[in-house]
Amino acid sequence: MPSQKKLKTSENTFETIEYLTESSSFIPKGLIISGYDFKVKEPPSDRPVRIYCDGIYDLFHFGHAKALEQAKKSFPDVYLMVGGVKVKRVMNEQERYQSVAHCKWVDQVIPDAPWTVTQEFIDKHQIDYVAHDAEPYQSTESGDVYAFAKAQGRFLPTQRTDGISTSDLITRIIRDYDAYLCRNIERGVSAKDLNISFLKEREIKTMKHIDNLKSQLITILLEHLATLEDSSHEFIRSFASRFGAKDIVVCIFILLCFIH
């Protein structure tokens, strides 16, 4: 039998919560719910489980998609809602909302979602669980922004995908900043759109021109070296046919002695 707890949901109302255990009928598929300092309540069995995921979802990538997939597949019948937090990032709000909306695991996008999930928000959207990775996310006003959901047994811990994050993508762009600038300038993007000065634009174009000249010179030199190598081989073959291989060895020996 699952463990139970009475939770106060309003001024004079208490709700009896049954928590998931290893022997429960509905264990979330693919998720680890043990080993945390919070418990997860039993899901409803007579309707789709309504799960809510929130996040910034900037530069939407497969790590985001895999987290949403975990939430969607956690129970046999899930209605997945995703809230986009309104903050200034690389992509604007509509771009982020559209990126999430086109993910096949998502049933509904909730714009302008709050940073901290409240009882009012849970009631409004009839949320059974809030799904997110279990790392504490701090807020200056309330500490862990998921503490409320955890206390109610409504927090469903997902697993992060290693090797990919929005911060990592931005770091890659910053690391190769000049290369990306050069590529976009070659495509015809203006210095104004790239937020760089005219002098910076000229510097990048000049360096690109120098790199092109270097490549051309290297190509020409390699072609000439190949020609010289072919000529030297032909000279040796001609010399050998006239004087013999023994004379070639003697000449090379004398030449090496002269050089040293």
From TrEMBL:
Q: Name one GO molecular function term.
A: choline-phosphate cytidylyltransferase activity
Q: GO cellular component terms? A: nuclear envelope
**Annotated coiled-coil segments of the chain:** none
Question: Which EC class does it fall in?
Answer: transferase
Q: Which residues form the Cytidyltransferase-like domain?
A: 52-172
Family the UniProt entry places it in: Belongs to the cytidylyltransferase family.
Query: What Enzyme Commission number(s) apply to this enzyme?
Result: 2.7.7.15
Organism, by scientific name, is: Rhizopus delemar (strain RA 99-880 / ATCC MYA-4621 / FGSC 9543 / NRRL 43880)
Organism placement in taxonomy: Eukaryota, Fungi, Fungi incertae sedis, Mucoromycota, Mucoromycotina
Protein's recorded name: choline-phosphate cytidylyltransferase
* The keyword Nucleotidyltransferase is assigned to this record: yes
List the keywords (alphabetical). Answer: Lipid biosynthesis, Lipid metabolism, Nucleotidyltransferase, Phospholipid biosynthesis, Phospholipid metabolism, Transferase
For whether the record's keyword set contains Nucleotidyltransferase, the answer is yes
